[in-house]
């Protein structure tokens, strides 16, 4: 496979700059009240990032609590079925709580504790990040409030109950479209009101600086492990990486350690929902345009007046009208390519992986599996496609059953 | 001299404080706003702050969020808001108008187009809640070219360096946010506000407006003792919201409150 890079010798791992910009994207677009707390967070993060004791504690938690390293699995049967490049799965579904989200929450809560914060807040869409946050808050004995759109609460009853079991308060957000973007607005409002006591754990590489860089750094454990594992197992780097993109945290976590490997092609998979041409999708990079939302400049789904529009995806975790600013930059500089997979294709991949490998993937991850299968089919058997299996599908069983007309 | 600066100077000479009510444009229906603006001036408003509705008003509490949603149900756009100002200017050439909103609708329109259209419509100042001066270089250049006053927030959390950065980039006046929180929250501590204003005044001669958390005669009077302007938003929008089923009563409900606030401010001891 030829690489998809336009800009020869440029470094892809030197951003963000000191003010949090990835080219023209990112930055800090927040009300004045949050500027000083964000500076404080950045300062604390930069200090602990380079602190050996903090890193040792984080490494121990990742190993013994999260269960890292997660395996890299050669999906022989899917490979056979697809008939092309060899497909490897990075098994983030095997982490504690069932997704990559916990890589970030264990990191941020250690930071919160070191900053002397006692109260944790988070936003959640599918509930995976909410569960991952409630989990680490329970472990450290911290108060935890999770904001969740009332529409999502209806769609994800199981995760709501999980959070409550873990001792978190789940607050229903009734404003706007009552989904993830509104939950993020509400969490920001809580934070601005309670900044002295409260640490806001954002669940993806969105939000104002330093969140996109900080969440990325906590998630790059995925790519660092995968890069080593594939070399051990296959003796070389993969030809292509594939990951689904909601806000973009599992994707950047896989991609980042490979960005300077110029022969590795990189594909981020957005949710095409009912199809890009219908307008009912969640694919800002494929079909949106740049704007400012939730503290950063990035690609957005918006109308001609600059109002944010509702997104559609069978997968609640991809149902977000923005995307991490680093992905916007990687798209513009041509280092990564962004594609989209529709609901039906993701469902096919969900069933297919379940049947041939005995692995039930999250609907989010099913988008990556679907695109990887298409991509691999056009490649040769001596090539390698590495897919991030960002989470397990137990949470989605009801959604899939309903689609198939089955009552569980 | 800008209309905003002139307004502050004039009131200062007569020993009065500036009263700035906020309403969301198009709330609860597009037809309500223009007559309401004129009525507010008659009831004692010195400057009008007109909210540009946005789908994701991250810095606003429930009252102004709901106002935004009502206006957006009529697809009120930034262009519509500027049209309202243009019509307001047909008969009122004196009262300054400030647009308050979020950056994205302005990004979509383009900074230069926005600034030109706003100036043409008769807008005097622009407060973009989610645009700190650090990110505002091009936007400020566009506003300055059209002689529009950039209005910035200063918060209880703002450091001295940030206050300097903000006051260096602001004109017209600066807007001190009286509380850590969103619009419409309560628990205003006037001693704390006074202490912060003293810090700000060390760095600038610009007038200081205070808002967020002023909801009645008492809080308005106390803030008027230390600030140059009193900004009242959610308390007014709440009056609007109470009459969405009888919009003909909105003008009286709002001007009733404004009359009380005006009196409280004018009789507050300095
Ligand atoms: C399993 C899984 N994958 C992916 C995502 C999307 O988030 P991100 O793009 O930040 O990885 C989610 C979000 O809830 C998720 O639960």
Question: How would you describe what is shown here?
Answer:
- The complex is a heterodimer of chains A (408) and B (270).
- Chain A is an alpha/beta fold and 408 residues long.
- Helices cover 43% and strands 18% of the residues of chain A.
- Chain A has helices at 32-49, 52-66, 76-82, 101-114, 128-140, 150-155, 157-165, 180-193, 211-219, 221-234, 249-255, 284-287, 325-333, 343-357, 363-377, 397-403, and strands at 21-22, 25-29, 72-74, 86-91, 119-124, 143-149, 169-173, 198-200, 240-244, 265-273, 289-293, 295-300, 337-342, 384-389.
- In chain A, strand 11 (289-293) and strand 12 (295-300) form a beta hairpin.
- The longest helix of chain A has 18 residues, at 32-49.
- Chain A is globular, with a radius of gyration of 20 Å.
- Residues 1-8 of chain A have low confidence and may be disordered.
- Chain B is an alpha/beta fold.
- Chain B has one domain: Aldolase class I (TIM Barrel).
- Helix content of chain B is 49%, strand content 13%.
- Chain B is built from 12 helices and 9 strands.
- In chain B, helix 2 packs parallel to helix 12 (250-266), helix 3 packs across helix 11 and helix 11 packs antiparallel against helix 12 (250-266).
- The longest helix of chain B is centred in the C-terminal third of the chain and has 17 residues, at 250-266.
- Chain B starts with a helix and ends with a helix.
- Classes of the chains: A alpha/beta (408), B alpha/beta (270).
- Chains A and B meet through strand 2, helix 1, helix 8, strand 11 and strand 12 of A and helix 3, helix 5 and strand 6 of B.
- Pyridoxal-5'-phosphate (PLP) is lined by residues 99, 125-126, 128-129, 204, 244-251, 317-318, 362, 364-365, 390-391 of chain A.
- Residues 99, 125-126, 128-129, 204, 244-251, 317-318, 362, 364-365, 390-391 of chain A line the site of pyridoxal-5'-phosphate.
Quick overview of this protein structure:
The complex is a heterodimer of chains A (408) and B (270). Chain A is α/β, with parallel strands linked by helices.
